[in-house]
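Write out this protein's structure.
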Amino acid sequence: MTTLHLPIDRASRIPIYRQIYDGLRQAILDGVLHPGQKVPSTRALAEELEVSRLPVLTAYEQLLHECYLEGRLGSGTFVSAALPDHLLRSPAPAHRRGRIRPPPAARDYGGLGPFRTSLPALDQFPQAVWARLVARHAHTMTRAQMAYGDPAGVAALRDAIAEHLRAARGVRCEAEQVLVVSGSQAALRVTAAVLLARGDGVAMEEPGYPGARAALTAGGARAIPVAVDEEGLRVSTLRTRGAMRAVYVTPSHQYPLGMSMTAARRLELLDWASRQNAWILEDDYDSDYRYVSRPLGALQGMDTQARVIYIGSFSKVLFPALRIGYVVVPPSLVPRFADARASLDLFSPTLYQLALAEFLREGHFARHVRRMRGVYMKRREALLTGLARHCAEWLSVYNADAGLHVTVLLARGINDDNLVARMAARRLTATALSACYAGRARQQGLLLGFGGSTERRLLEATRILSEISTPWR
């Protein structure tokens, strides 16, 4: 049942029952109320409108007689499930006349198709443990915890995140430097609000993450593409591009090409930032899973001049709907970041923060990551086996060393945008490599995620991918 907005003009000569009748009828014809939707009882609507029940009863009786509404014994009153055609042809109000635009295409953020990037193994998440922790805190939340929270996050979670980052990622931080946000995108928006003014230059990896480019330039900053090579961002090129306020990098697992920034290149970048008085925005993308070596430490851990803003998220390690990420900032910037974070959406939901803090403290997170390394290793091998078996003649694997996706390059003459569209028609979800370039794409390729699909499904998906590629072979 819904709450209805029916403006009543008590000074009007139109009787109140007629105003209620006209308002309900127009809401049905405009599609505000849908067929089968329950409407308030006459008593509830009278109380809501602060009128006597009689005019409401009169309006409902007329609408029932004209088949706009229907009563169901023991259930209440509903918009008629099958409105007569002549009712649906009622002219639209003036503010809605004119050309009707089709609704925008849905953004498939929730798709679970094979090859979707950044999707973890949701079927392997310890849901029973998580449900127990959430239920425990839901039953014991204090009134203070149910009120407005600290914009920087629940203290217990900030402490748990800092402890985890120090041990697992080599990050130099205390809990006071950690701010909890709704994900890496939110972290980037907060960072941009604090550090970047309109017209400021921010260097971006080329190719790089389009979402970061959008977040960092939303306030008017200028994205300056800087090419990457097998060692990461070309700092030598960075030195020739003029004054810049910041540089955004994914040093642990470069998005989208997958290489890791070498130690020499990291030191070179830190030296550049110190000399230029610029900021390094480190997005620790897909840092937890490596298949050819041990996980690399964070760039932030090598920083001795407090020039690195460190950004991470639990979306790809646990599940995307959790919507909890974090940003670690130098102590001098904490007050400004806290103010900017508060202006974003006040604070993150307290219940999930409490549950996640315990999930980390009790060791569930570390055990989950260790177990998932084996799961993802098998899924990665299944994808590579399928590509070698079915697709080797028209694509080549560029990088599969880490993370939850494999980067492949396409043979000459194959357009990745066209291929992605054809894949979507067969319910395969992938990302075109060309979409990651700010300028003209130099490579045609695909980002093939393997985290969210079983080995069997991945092998079958590579066979379908081979069939899709037939027109180009």
